[in-house]
């Protein structure tokens, strides 16, 4: 189960780019809990010993580090937070500016901000297994072509053999975990789902809105399992998900990109809701499938996703890629 | 024609994301000057009055702001700095951690770092002209749903009325321009094409490889015009394009993302070849269509793209968006 939970964190890794896969926390309503733990937790990383940088992104301002916490293997993920409009006034008045360059109408500075206005999201995985460490390592991706036969002969046996646990998904569906994070739920066993923020989103601004709808139905592994009988489920998730996001975040459907991944990170049907214009990891055409297209395709061909050749990227260290190579399919 | 060339250069603008146009300053060698100016410059932004946020990126952690400095129009650009490996030890030992969430082996924190280890690059343009302000403004995008009827009633009349010139495309096909940039050509009038680097690619490294294949056939405006009769053309572009890229750049097909845009930037059939793993502008699922999928869809339904509802983003300033709004379709 630990390994599979890791898969959840690694949702976008198959794109070949280390994602800003930082678990994001709650905000105001958790202050009590937070404060209670603060003194205990303050020093957790003070003795962190870095072994190696697994990957980093200068563009996204994040870094994935392997190291030790009190002799245990750990992975630490740091990512700077987006700049918030509502903190600008305090940022300008409360910071120190160091001039770097002045030329005509242009000048550049290094701004040193009050720490509480310039936090760094930090995720600690401890103890981390070899698999965690490998997963966060920067890895090349390859585009794989999967025919109907390839799915039956290569991909499906691999999924079954790995028997990835989705216990953490069931915990959410059964309210055993993260119940307070749920944004919307339709409890219907056939077409129902739970909508909650993705860990990649800190919920402080809608610019990078990212929610996940998890179906209550437990027997749909991925896009490949979908037939026309699932159209009502998909339509329900699409429609009610959009409505819930409009109500909660005041973001209309015309500002949303709603899609499934293939391959998914975990084999329980889920749908991604991200803000249009936010370059969300994994929203590229090589991995994402718009739910509106999926619905249309199933309506005109009930077996569309069972029979089609599908294309997707796999990282160099993905076990499934080795299986495709062994089968001479790459 | 000027307008159309402009459209070509603006190929990616429909994604609605501003580029990280941040001027960068110098560092160490400027310390003397910096110290000299420090006291004077410290307060430049303390009285900054924000008029509006022109654009920002939650992914890249930057923000472009229009406002006033001492009654003068100004643009301020803030961008958080990448996390540096050489400051990690000090960052871990010198920061405060606030626990947000703990679940099994995962925990998340807000890290408050010493200001000098967590600077924000700041660029001031002052006085700024109207042109500066416009340049940094985000053009918002909206997702449009285009049915078969919408295409006939809204989009096609708009394309025809605008009569966008593609003379520059004909110049390439006829070797009147850019002949020396051609990477490969198949001169066949039916299935032939010209392959050349996109303007966005400087050709200095294959990491961000970006080529365009332009069909010799002149009567195909876009994806909407494609039927099964065009499958040989698409297959030829796909196959020979991949071969040419392997030969010239030593990049195999498994490292390529090959797709069409809808809406395209110009209404003459062309195909994008970009490197897998390079986050090319316009490769998102909301605008890109894998050529391999297009071929399959046309093979099973010759009228697939004539009849399907298609989804695409349009920028707020796109004339076509106004037409959809006037028709009550947004």
- Structural class given helices, strands, pairing of chain A? alpha+beta
Count of DSSP helices of chain A?
Answer: 10
**Radius of gyration of chain A, Cα only, in angstroms?**
21 Å
Quaternary: homodimer
CATH superfamily of the largest domain in chain A: HIT-like
CATH architecture descriptor of the largest domain in chain A: 2-Layer Sandwich
Residue share in helix of chain A: 25-40%
Total beta strands of chain A: 14
Shape of chain A: globular
Strand content of chain A: 25-35%
Order of secondary-structure elements of chain A? HHEEEHEEEHEHHEEEHEEEHHEH
Largest interface: A-B, 116 and 110 residues
> What's the domain count of chain A?
2
The chain-level mean pLDDT of chain A equals: 87
- State the end-to-end CA separation of chain A: 30 Å
Q: Which CATH top level class of the largest domain in chain A fits?
A: Alpha Beta
- Main beta-sheet strand count, sense and barrel state of chain A: 6 strands, antiparallel
Q: What fold name stands as the CATH topology of the largest domain in chain A?
A: HIT family, subunit A
Strand order of the largest sheet of chain A: 8-9-10-12-11-13
Low-confidence stretches of chain A: 1-41
């Amino acid at each position: 189960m630990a390994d599979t939970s890791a898969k959840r964190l690694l949702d976008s890794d198959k794109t070949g780019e280390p994602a800003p896969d930082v678990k994001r926390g709650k905000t105001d309503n958790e202050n009590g809990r937070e404060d209670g733990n603060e003194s205990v937790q303050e020093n957790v990383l003070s003795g962190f010993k870095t072994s190696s940088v697994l990957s980093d992104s200068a563009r996204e301002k994040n870094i994935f580090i392997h190291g030790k916490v009190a002799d245990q293997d750990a992975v630490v993920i740091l990512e700077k937070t987006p700049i918030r409009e509502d903190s600008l006034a305090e940022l300008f008045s409360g910071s120190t500016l160091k001039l770097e360059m002045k030329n005509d109408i242009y000048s550049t500075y290094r701004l040193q901000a009050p720490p509480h206005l310039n936090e760094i999201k930090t995720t600690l995985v401890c103890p981390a297994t070899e698999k965690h460490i490998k997963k966060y390592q920067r890895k090349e991706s390859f585009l794989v072509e999967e025919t109907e036969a390839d799915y039956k002969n290569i991909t499906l046996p691999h999924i079954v053999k790995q028997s990835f646990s989705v216990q953490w998904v069931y915990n959410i569906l059964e309210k055993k975990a993260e119940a307070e994070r749920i944004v919307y739920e339709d409890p219907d066993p056939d077409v129902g789902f739970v909508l909650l923020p993705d860990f990649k989103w800190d919920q402080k601004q809608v610019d990078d809105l990212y929610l996940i709808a998890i179906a209550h139905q437990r027997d749909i592994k991925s896009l490949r399992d979908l037939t026309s009988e699932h159209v009502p489920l998909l339509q329900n998730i699409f429609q009610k998900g959009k409505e819930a996001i409009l109500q909660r975040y005041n973001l209309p459907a015309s500002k949303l990109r709603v899609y499934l991944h293939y391959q998914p990170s975990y084999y329980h049907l889920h749908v991604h809701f991200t803000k249009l214009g936010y370059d969300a990891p994994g929203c590229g055409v090589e991995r994402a499938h718009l739910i509106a297209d999926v619905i249309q395709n199933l309506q005109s061909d009930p077996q569309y996703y069972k029979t089609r050749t599908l294309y997707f990227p796999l990282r160099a260290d993905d076990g499934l890629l080795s299986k495709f190579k062994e089968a001479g399919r790459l």
